[in-house]
Amino acid sequence: MLMLLGVPDEVVMQEYLLTNEQLLPESKPIFDRFEAMGGDPELLMPVYGVRKEYLEAAMDEMRKRFGTVEGYFTDASAWM
Questions:
Q1: How far apart are CA 64 and CA 15, in angstroms?
Q2: Long-range residue pairs from 12-15, CB within 8 A, at least 24 positions apart, any chain
Q3: pLDDT reported for residue 75
Q4: Do residues 16 and 53 lie in contact, with contact meaning Cβ atoms separated by under 8 Å?
Q5: What string of H, E and C letters represents the secondary structure of the chain?
Q6: In 3D, which of 5, 3, 19, 2 has the Cα closest to residue 54?
Q7: Confidence band (pLDDT; 50, 70, 90) for 77?
Q8: Predicted confidence band at 43 (pLDDT cuts at 50, 70, 90)?
Q9: Which of 8, 15, 44, 69 has the most other CB atoms within 10 Å of its CB?
């Protein structure tokens, strides 16, 4: 949505990566409970955390298939 509003990719990335700083600490009780039940908390990282590479891959694929973010929002419904 930020991209559709014209927010530069770098700012979108900064906002996306804030998940690791703001959501992960709030999710600590979930990680603790998972660990208490015998799970490895690191297994939750791909679900709760984000990585720069994830958003870069999504942006690359969007541009490859639809050209622009506007193209994605107007044409992606044909893919669903």
A1: 23
A2: 12/55, 13/52, 13/55
A3: 84
A4: no
A5: CCCCCCCCHHHHHHHHHHHHHHHHHHCHHHHHHHHHCCCCHHHHHHHHCCCHHHHHHHHHHHHHHHCCHHHHHHHHHHHC
A6: 19
A7: low
A8: very high
A9: 69
Residue that the structure tokens 């700083």 belong to: 21
Q: Tokens in use for 48?
A: 């709760």
d(CA 28, CA 14): 22
Q: 38 is written with which tokens?
A: 């015998």
Q: Which contacts of 44-52 are long-range, i.e. CB under 8 A and separated by 24 or more positions?
A: 48/23, 48/24, 49/19, 49/20, 49/24, 50/16, 50/17, 50/19, 50/20, 52/13, 52/17
- The token duo for 27 is 């999710």
| Structure token pair of residue 33 | 């409970």
